[in-house]
Design goal:
The protein has one domain (about 1-100): Chorismate mutase (Chorismate Mutase Domain, subunit A), CATH 1.20.59.10. About 70% of the residues lie in helices and about 0% in strands. The protein is an all-alpha fold. The structure holds prephenic acid. Prephenic acid binds near residues 44, 56, 61, 89 and 94. This is Chorismate mutase.
Amino acid sequence: MADDNTDRRRTDEMSLDELREEIRTIDRDIVELIAQRTYVAEAIADVKEEQGLPTTDEEQEQAVMERAGDNAEQFDVDSNLVKAVFRLLIELNKVEQRESR
Ligand SMILES: O=C(O)C(=O)C[C@]1(C(=O)O)C=C[C@@H](O)C=C1
């Protein structure tokens, strides 16, 4: 996070344009991380198909959601909103996994 990162400038010393540039960089990083997560999920889908397992794993989804809540608390952001984002990420993977079968 910007405030925790000593390489990044303090946000209270930045202009509006600089702050928006910071957001722009973070937004790109978020999409890059989503792409990485999706890529790994595709590899998981291949393994599950080889092993004859279903695309949906409710227990794993539960673990992901719990972790999302814990991480949200750690970084002091709204845990329900973070969980909603992770619910969408899981759904994205499930649609892709079903389509690739
Ligand atoms: O861990 C898996 O088995 C995945 O396919 C990944 C993932 C996820 O996006 O976290 C997606 C679908 C499953 O139901 C559970 C978790």
